[in-house]
């Protein structure tokens, strides 16, 4: 009899421990689904007869969905409950997946917009949910485990989506159907997992309001520099989730959907590796390393496109991924040091707003430039613009960490 007796606290902690991994799975699958169309854009262009600029427009619609969702509903889980909002996000993503089965550009645009809405609801909610489940399962522990899993699920998930979609598109029939059938199944499993996870927030009746954005008053120059860094980092990731497969096919002559997916996966995996590698460095050292790596990667990326040389393109992509991941982590850390404790969420909201603009605007500009310039020249302009942003951000950002040395 004593062998079957379990105290209530371990039972609750066990439920929170299982819930932690269920939510991590849901987070990763939704982020993977959000980037799954990346290696398929070439096929959509062939099917629907549109050019590179429309690819950037489709991507911009996705980013618009994310931004609107973040500031309209990304924070409502604080009073409606984490599980409820994640269920909404998954249902929206599954509805988006159904739209991808339909032919035509309007369905593609609508599907990408809804996918963005789902991600906007997901990111802040799942990140907070993971931290709460972790602390409930391991009272007194620090946040590092939750932060690492959230980072891996977020950025790593974005990389896994193109890899899986590219492999399916390359080796199975119906390349614009089968990947989304697989993702609908994975999302359905995630929905069941979320429903089984314990809630961590008590529901409260709070009037809806949009997410507030706050700029830290202490040193606005450093905050602006952090936002510029987020803009540049997201622009790199935007390039590899929108136009990179087109460059592989059109400039480098690499038409394999599996290779296109693998390249995107590698860049995002490098971004995760860059963030993990900076954990033990000071803020100044992490920012310096991230900026230097990002600049070197951009140079190699341009060289790979202009020569053209596939190996250089891949090496440049990996370096920019590492640099972007490290630089963005430094931008978040800088924002947290500048903001007052009661306004950290609002300061981060501003940082992410600028970051999501960086996800869409530079890539949209690159698509416009490609209409008038050679695609290689357009990418050169893109890289030059990012280098200017990094130079503008570097000096004030490095000053942030000086008091911390030693």
TrEMBL record:
The keyword Signal belongs to this UniProt entry's keyword annotation: no
Pfam families named among the record's database cross-references: MFS_1
Primary site of residence: membrane
Entry GO MF terms: transmembrane transporter activity
InterPro entries: MFS (IPR011701), MFS_dom (IPR020846), MFS_trans_sf (IPR036259), MFS_Transporters (IPR050171)
Annotated transmembrane regions: 20-44, 50-73, 85-107, 113-136, 148-168, 180-202, 223-252, 258-279, 286-307, 313-336, 348-371, 377-398
Location relative to the cell: Cell membrane
GO cellular component: plasma membrane
Membrane topology: Multi-pass membrane protein
Chain ranges of the Major facilitator superfamily (MFS) profile domain: 12-404
Classification via PANTHER family: MAJOR FACILITATOR SUPERFAMILY MFS_1, RESISTANCE PROTEIN MDTM, PUTATIVE-RELATED-RELATED
Protein name (database record): MFS family permease
Organism: Catenuloplanes indicus
Lineage: Bacteria, Bacillati, Actinomycetota, Actinomycetes, Micromonosporales
């Amino acid at each position: 009899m004593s062998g079957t007796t379990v105290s209530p606290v371990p039972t609750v902690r066990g439920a929170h421990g299982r819930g932690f991994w269920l939510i991590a799975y849901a987070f990763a699958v939704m982020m993977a689904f959000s980037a799954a169309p990346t290696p398929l854009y070439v096929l959509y262009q062939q099917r629907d007869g549109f050019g590179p600029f429309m690819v950037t427009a489709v991507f911009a619609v996705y980013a618009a969905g994310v931004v609107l969702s973040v500031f309209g509903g990304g924070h409502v889980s604080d009073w409606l409950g984490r599980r409820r909002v994640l269920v909404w996000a998954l249902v929206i993503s599954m509805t988006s997946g159904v739209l991808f089965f339909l032919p035509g550009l309007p369905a593609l645009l609508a599907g990408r917009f809804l996918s963005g809405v789902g991600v906007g609801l997901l990111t802040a909610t799942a990140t907070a949910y993971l931290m709460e489940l972790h602390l409930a399962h391991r009272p007194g522990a620090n946040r590092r485990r939750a932060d690492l899993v959230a980072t891996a699920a977020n950025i790593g998930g974005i990389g896994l989506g193109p890899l899986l979609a590219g492999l399916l598109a390359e080796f199975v029939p119906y390349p614009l159907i089968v990947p989304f059938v697989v993702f609908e199944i994975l999302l359905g499993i995630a929905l069941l997992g979320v429903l089984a996870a314990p809630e961590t927030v008590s529901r409260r009746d709070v009037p809806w309001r949009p997410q507030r954005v706050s700029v830290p008053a202490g040193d606005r120059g450093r905050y602006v520099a952090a936002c510029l860094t987020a803009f540049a980092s997201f622009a790199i990731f935007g390039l590899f989730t929108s136009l990179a497969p087109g460059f592989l096919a059109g400039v480098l002559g690499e038409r394999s959907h599996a290779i296109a997916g693998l390249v995107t996966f590698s860049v995002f995996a490098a971004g995760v590796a860059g963030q993990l590698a900076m954990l033990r460095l000071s803020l100044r050292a992490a920012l310096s390393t991230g900026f230097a790596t990002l600049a070197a990667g951009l140079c190699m990326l341009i060289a790979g496109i202009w020569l053209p040389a596939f190996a250089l393109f891949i090496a440049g992509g990996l370096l920019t991924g590492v640099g972007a991941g490290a630089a963005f982590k430094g931008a978040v850390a800088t924002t947290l040091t500048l903001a007052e404790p009661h306004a950290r969420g609002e300061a981060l909201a501003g940082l992410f707003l600028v970051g999501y603009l960086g996800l869409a605007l530079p890539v949209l500009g690159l698509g416009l430039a490609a209409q008038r310039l050679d695609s290689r020249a357009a990418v050169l302009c893109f890289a030059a613009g990012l280098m200017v942003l990094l130079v503008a951000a570097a000096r004030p950002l490095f000053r942030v960490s000086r008091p911390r040395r030693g």
